[in-house]
TrEMBL record:
Swiss-Prot/TrEMBL catalytic activity: (sulfur carrier)-H + L-cysteine = (sulfur carrier)-SH + L-alanine
Keyword Transferase: yes
Official protein name in the record: Cysteine desulfurase
Top-level taxon in the UniProt lineage: Bacteria
Length: 404
């Protein structure tokens, strides 16, 4: 049985007060809090095995290397990737997307098309714009509807043999929409296009199966799955990673270097130049094990309850509008209150101990679509409670009263 109080006790930060009030942390879409096992694992690494990896013959270096590779295997199993060399450690989702977009210049030429969706985070837009500027390819956008869902019939029409890659998120960070990524992959493959899925917002809520999705690339950030900041994963199909040129040059990514010619290391090291975030990479495995210990079925079921309850309670507030009303939604509620700037609500409820995100959520095209400057976004994690939702709703009501 899932016991939220037992889970909460594992997160030291959740028992803190902020501005003299108990912390209600509803900014999980920006970053997740860390359980004690993750905090302890970082300390243990630096206290007991700190050494550089893949280069020393000495004992600590081997211990560190082993722990790093065990973490890679943990993540391979978690994503159900076919090979462990399809798992590349990165600094986060942003770096993973930039790595692929930069390398894709080798496969894209003038007149080709690169497709993103209207629901993307800036980090899944701008790297593709770089690619288009560099190659003369055209950026094509899958449109969305009023509910914040992708218009799939339009996607079908936009696809053609000019499409070289489609980059979409699995779940929208701004609206919570769950996108039909499996369908998108299957359709894109029919025209020979590759697909990159931005899983930054999905991995905290579900366990992706990359072989079942059949995606070519899947990226996510460690810090959103209870892991350390500055960590992330790029999954790529072996055949794509073999074709893709390296992103950064340096130590560890080479086979042989002479001034005439350098040959690259085998996967995944070809993409892991320099000393990585060793502690972070190891502890990302700890975080993934922790999440699997809670169980993604439990997480999904419980978060759905929070989403339903939060939606119902917020809709009691007069003049409140929720953006993102897709049937398939993660536990993210984006909203505004008539006549009040989101920033003002965020500032007042912070004084009451409630942490939410306000603004455009790095997704300005979505805000432009709705013709709003931004929203207030409450994003729930499995360690949040209905009692916290009550405190939050009362805080929003109080802010509304003060501001109108
Ligand atoms: C957070 C997020 C990103 C960026 O992740 P970083 O950890 O900042 O690199 C990209 N896409 C989505 C959907 C996100 O939620």
């Amino acid at each position: 049985m899932f016991d939220v109080q037992k889970v909460r006790a594992q997160f030291p930060i959740l028992s803190q007060t902020v501005n003299g009030k108990p912390l209600v942390y509803f900014d999980n879409g920006a970053t997740a809090q860390k359980p004690q096992v993750v905090i302890d694992a970082i300390s243990k690494y630096y206290s007991e095995i700190n050494a550089n990896i893949h280069r020393g013959v000495h004992t600590l270096s081997q211990l560190a290397t082993d722990a790093y590779e065990v973490s890679r295997n943990t993540i391979q199993a978690h994503l159900n990737a076919k090979y462990n060399h399809e798992i590349v450690f990165t600094s986060g989702t942003t770096q993973g997307i930039n790595l692929v977009a930069s390398g894709f210049a080798a496969f894209v030429k003038e007149g080709d098309e690169v497709m993103v969706s209207a629901l993307e985070h800036h980090s899944n837009i701008v790297p593709w714009q770089f690619l288009c500027e560099k190659t003369g390819a055209k950026l094509v956008v899958i449109p969305m509807n009023e509910k914040g869902e992708l218009i799939i019939s339009e996607f079908d029409k936009l696809l053609s043999d000019k499409t070289k890659i489609v980059a979409v998120n699995h779940i929208s960070n701004a609206l919570g929409t769950v996108n039909p990524v499996k369908y998108i992959v299957a359709k894109a493959h029919e025209v020979g296009a590759a697909v990159l899925i931005d899983g930054a917002q999905a991995t905290p809520h579900l366990r992706p199966d990359v072989q079942d999705l059949d995606c070519d690339f899947y990226v996510f950030s460690g810090h959103k799955v209870c892991g350390p900041t500055g960590t992330g994963i790029l999954y790529g199909k072996e055949s794509w990673l073999n074709q893709l040129p390296p992103y950064m040059g340096g130590g560890e990514m080479i086979k042989e270097v002479t001034f005439e010619k350098t040959t690259y290391a085998d996967l995944p090291h070809k993409f892991e130049a320099g000393t990585p975030n060793i502690a972070g990479g190891i502890v990302l495995g700890t975080a993934i094990n922790y999440m699997n210990g809670i169980g993604f079925d439990n997480i999904a079921r419980y978060e759905q309850e929070l989403l339903d309850y939060g939606t119902k309670r917020l809709l009691e507030i007069e003049g409140l509008k929720i953006y993102g009303t897709s049937e398939h939604k993660a536990s993210v509620i984006s909203f505004n209150i008539e006549g009040i700037h989101p920033y003002d609500i965020g500032t007042i409820i912070d004084k009451l101990g409630v942490a939410v995100r306000t603004g455009h959520h790095c997704a300005q095209p979505i805000m432009n679509y709705f013709n709003i400057p931004g929203t207030i976004r409450a994003s729930f994690a499995f360690y949040n409670t209905k009692e916290e939702i009550d405190i939050f709703v009362e805080a929003v009501k109080k802010a509304q009263m003060m501001l109108s």
